[in-house]
Every structure is written in C-alpha cells, then in structure tokens.
C-alpha cells in the first residue's frame, strides 16, 4: 500500500510549485530578511538609563568619576533626578536617605515597570561594594542570560518571531490551499479507490510541507543570524520548526477538508489569527501579562522556539510527549475526515 | 464475481439507505443498477468499491468478503468511473493518466496514448491542461483513467453523461469490448438506452430495495400488452388498428390501401421502472 507514496509525493510537490507557494515563501524570506537587516537591527534599543542621586557617596562607586559608567548618570539634586526620569523610561535611584529609593514614572505597563525596577537595582548592585545594600529590596536575582551582544539578541528574537509567524500562518495556508484545489477537482475521491493507503495521501502532503518549512527555517536562520551562529543552534530550531510545521499542517488539512468552501476557511483563518496567534505574540513580546496564557498550547510552542533560538535546549519530556500525542491525534482525526470526504458525492 | 446478501446500510440512526439487498453478478456480465436519485445505488456502489464501511449483511467480491478484501491487490483489480470527471485540472490528460497509472504494477497498465486514441480523444489537447477541455473530453479522460489498469471489475457511474450521441455510441462500443475481454461491469445509470443496449441483467432499486431483477428483455416481455398497432391508409383516410397477439398467430385480413407503420406495443425499460417503483428515474 505504501508503494505509491513516492508518486503522491511527486504530485504534491508539483501541486505546490504550480500553486506558486514557493514564490510566496521566497517573498516572505526576502521581506523578513530585509526588515531584519535593514530596519530592525538599526532600531534604537538602548538600555534603560539609570540616574543616581547620591549626595553622601553611599554607593562608594568604583567607576567614579561620575558619568563614566555607560548605564549610570550621577545627578546633583532630587529635582534634577525627577526631571531626568520624566520620560517614563529612565530609572532614578535616590540614596540621599542612606537606603536606596527607586524613583520612576510608570511606562503604562506593569511588567515593563517591573523590569525597569529590577534593571535599576541590578545596575546599582553591580557598581556598589556591598551588594547587601540592595538584597533586602530585590524580589529576584537579576541574571544575564547568554553571552550574546545586543544585535545578536535582537536578530534571534525577531527571526524567531518571523519563523513562528511563517509556520503558523503562511504554511498553514499553503497546505489548505492545495487541499481545497484537490477537493474542488474531486480527485480526493479518486484516491479512495487507488491501490495506495489513505494515510499516504496525508503523509505525502505533510512531508512536502515539512521539508519546505524546514528549508525555509534554515535559510531564514542562516541569512539573519549568520552561518556559524545559526549552525550551532540549527538542530534545536529544526526540531521546534518541525513540530510546529506538522501541527499547523494537520490543522490546515483538517480545516480544508471540513470546511465546505474557501470563504468559510478565510473566516476560520481570521479567527485563528486573532484569537490563537495574537495572544501568543502579545504575551511573549510585550508587557501584556495573562495568567491563563500558560494553558495556550501555541504559547508553549512559541517559547520552545525562542529557547531554541537562544541555544537553550527544551528537554522537557512532557512537552515532547504532548507534542507527539497531539500530532498523532490530529493525524488520526485527519485520516477519519479524509475517509469520510472520499465517500462524498458531487 | 459479486455476491450480495441481505445488504443493509444506514446513515445515522434514522436514515436507513439500504434495506437488505440480494443480488449476484457473474464473471463477464454487464449488470445494470437502475434507480432514481437517493434510491441507494451510489451507497451500494461505494460499499462494493470498499470506500464505505459499516454495512450489514454479506458482500463478497472476487470470492472474498469486502471488509477483509480492501487490500492493494483488491484495488488493483477494480476500475471506477465516477459520475463526475474527477481529474487534476492543472495537468494534461497524459499527465493525469500517467499519475493514476503509476499506482498499478507496470505489467498491468495499458498504453496511455493507445487508450486515448481508442476513446477518440483529440490529439491537439493531449498536452493541454484539463481545465481547457469540454465536458465530453473530460469524460473520455475519466473513462481512460478507469480503464488504464485493465481492471477485472469495472464500476461505471453514468458513463455516457456529458457525451454527444456519437460519443455515447463509442462508449457503449468500448464497454462491449471490455465485456468481450472478460471484464465484469457494474453499471449505475439513469440512462435507459444504455441499460437496455448494454446490460445482461438489470436491477431496479427504489428506496433501498431491489424491486425487480432480470434481463431487460424478460422484464419487458413480462409486462407486454401483446398488442400491435398498425397505421394505414384506406380510401384516402389515415386509420389505426390494434391487433392482439392471438389474432396475429391465426392470421387476419383487413381492408386497406397502404400500411404506413407497425408498432409493437412492448413497454420500454423506463415504463417498467415506473411500473415497479411508481417513480421516474430523474
């Protein structure tokens, strides 16, 4: 029954090529890469500036004279400190009373304010003799993750986001559009009476889109992170891209077989984009904080991909078990739905 | 070749589609399955071709129960022409046929060009995409797809649909040739002419029941009025006379100047269908 698999694979590849899918992927690759290299890495992404009012020299700064530290600027009065922090970004530390007092205007989001506070404390800790001065007031120990410079961090972050978007939105559309074509032509029904296993019909499509997604992931990573840096993290990226690609391709397959026409599919796609992918981006990339996001499966796929881009291996057994189980379940449902589609008429 | 005993099937709990069908189809026979829309003929064909599960009763093809027969070998032995020409419209006739042929063993596959020639397919269109074909041309390619693997059992659903009269004649000729080769044909159709001209036996199906099963000739004979109507001219006037079969046997004379036409009053297959089922075939 599996002998015809290669013929199915060839046909699906032809369908993908004739559907101009490669052009769309190529366009995305060029667009993302241009944005990353020409715009994103050049964006001003300065660290939060810290202003220190320390009239009694309580910090006993080792990097004196003042203004030499790249993160800290000394000010001469409380008024000057408040003026400097009026931008809602900078952080003020007032040591006039002996113990540090953080002064800053809220940026509008709780999470960002929290990060600013932690950053201010961490910077002050670094420049003081006695770390204990701040330890009582610091909620978390500030830790520098990785040894990447600012540009490399930016590149990894944005490349990860684009890959996630490409696989979850564009790749999903690619498979669905091919399947809709086959559905409209009625040829799915013909495969029901061919001497080839029905599962091969699904598998060949998954293989074609998985390969194309992995190829896209490789190119996007090498172009935007660099060959050497990219090669080191490629296995992890490919593993996460593979999982996301399979899950999204199967969801696309199910939707295309289930939904009667492309209009309904477009509506579903909109719902998927708005209610499923958007919260993941908001929770992962902005200061928006939702407790329930940990129950969102796509959030875990996104964070796993991000970890892969920063070279942190996701070795969690439950994560991979749930991914494998979900893929197997989706495949089974796709198989049943396909078998039902093959019996339809007209 | 096909043996069906007490075949039942229902879509859901309350929609019983088949109510215990019984029939057999012999090797090399052309068996017609006639019924109006929604009568259960497509459901029966889907069960026989192995794409619909969950039936009751016994269905055997090639001497094997159909549920256990759905193997690669089973699908290599059957050919199916669907009611609609399902083809890859972005591919040419040749590419379509080569693709579908690729799933069968090479020794079993017929030559694509010869087959299309036999089906009188226009050569200019061989390499053009199917999207540019007329309905009749698509039907020819679909027929070629059903025949490409030299099937032992051929399921044909409305084979002459979308064809002009000469195309329909050609298709009937090809189906006859298949029978001569020993292929068994299970023909599902609304077309009474096809059924009458091609089928060795026909089954009338209505509301999931077979209401009659016999050769077309016997079905018509059983219900014949045994009358003949003669149109003739007598003294410049057109007249009509109905003659009973008994009169014909005895021999008779009637005054006339010229006989214009003689009509046997044998019912058509469609008349028979309506008589058995109380419904038309549309």
- The H-level CATH homologous superfamily of the largest domain in chain B, spelled out, is P-loop containing nucleotide triphosphate hydrolases
Instruction: Provide the gyration radius of chain A in Å.
Output: 26 Å
> What is the domain total for the residues of chain B?
2
Number of strands of chain B: 13
Percent of sequence in beta strands of chain B = 25-35%
- Our measurement of the CA-to-CA distance between the termini of chain A, rounded to an integer number of angstroms, reads 27 Å
Q: Helix fraction of chain A? A: 55-70%
Structural class of chain A: mainly alpha
* Count of distinct strands of chain A: 4
Largest interface: A-B, 25 and 29 residues
Helical segment count of chain B: 11
Helical content of chain B, roughly? 25-40%
Largest sheet of chain A: 4 strands, mixed
Which residues of chain A sit in consecutive blocks of at least 5 with pLDDT less than 50? 63-68, 130-137
Helix count from the secondary structure assignment of chain A: 12
- First CA to last CA of chain B: what distance? 30 Å
Strand arrangement, largest sheet of chain B?
6-7-8-3-9-10
CATH architecture of the largest domain in chain B, by name, is 3-Layer(aba) Sandwich
